[in-house]
Amino acid sequence: MLLEKTEEVKKNFLNDLDSVNDNESIENIRIKYLGRNGIVSGLFDKLKEIPKEQKPEAGKSLNLLRNELTSKLEELKSSFGKGKKEGGIELDLSLPGRKYHIGSKHILTQTLDEIKSIFRGMGFSVYTGPELESDYYNFEALNFPPDHPARDMQDTFFISDDFLLRTHTSPVQIRTMEKMPPPVRTIMPGRVYRNEAVSARSYCMFHQVEGLYVDEDVTFAELKGTLVSFARQFYGEDLKYRFRPSFFPFTEPSAEMDITCFICKGSGCKVCKQSGWLEILGCGMVDPNVFNYVNYDPEKYTGYAFGMGIERIAMLKYGITDIRVFFENDFRFLKQF
Ligand code: DAH
To answer: Closest by alpha carbon to 300, among 165, 183, 170, 150?
Structure first.
């Protein structure tokens, strides 16, 4: 009888605990169950009425019940209690919660992601190469004559006589062609370094995306078509563009692609130096000499290549006028994108 009663009291007690929300309600429950005239005391009184031989067992279970209820209440009390966390640090539960800042991709990463997805859509794969390069890959195999001004100490960070920090992503063209036979259709993004004075327009480190397509019968018309398609997807369908003849040692013929100035829409302003046009990339047909370096047959294969600066592409798209902001990590700049 008494044992059953004990179980029932325990069940009711646990039910009552569900509604506890502060120290006062804990105290009320303590009085109800453990107070002098409380339910548990009532059970102890009943001990007198039961047969002698049952008393030890019943007494023991009542003691257990009392201890259990007491410790449950103590436990709850300390969680609402004096507001002390473990280790004694004050915890004020009435304070508003802490705000966490959710990170986001850097604008250069976002720009590169977009470039990659556009070129992937046109069948290009993505390769990367080392930032520490040899003179051979950075210059020689790209058909730079030994006395070419780009090799000058003023432009290139030399590590030793033979090694340097790559000044462009074009060496990855050579590495890719060395590794696989045509057809090759790939873009090669990465960091490049130039020993230039830091200013709003130039930085000692920046990013480029190189492009290369080699197969039988690849034409300049395909080069133009691919780049115009890229520019329209990236800058918008109504984009105006032009190709100007240019020179690069590793392409022949070579060209640069311009788009209409995003600020003045072509009428002429400070950003486009009154020309109405902004250059976005260099390109051309791979020079047969380059094919000789990688053992591709220049009689059988033709190809095109292009290279663009990611910072420049992003600056033109978002109207950013100082390249340094990409690397200062000023939160006010970063969170705009
Ligand atoms: N490597 C050149 C630079 O850094 C950019 C470039 C121009 C890459 C023409 C090319 C190309 O692949 O065909 O200025």
So the answer is: 183
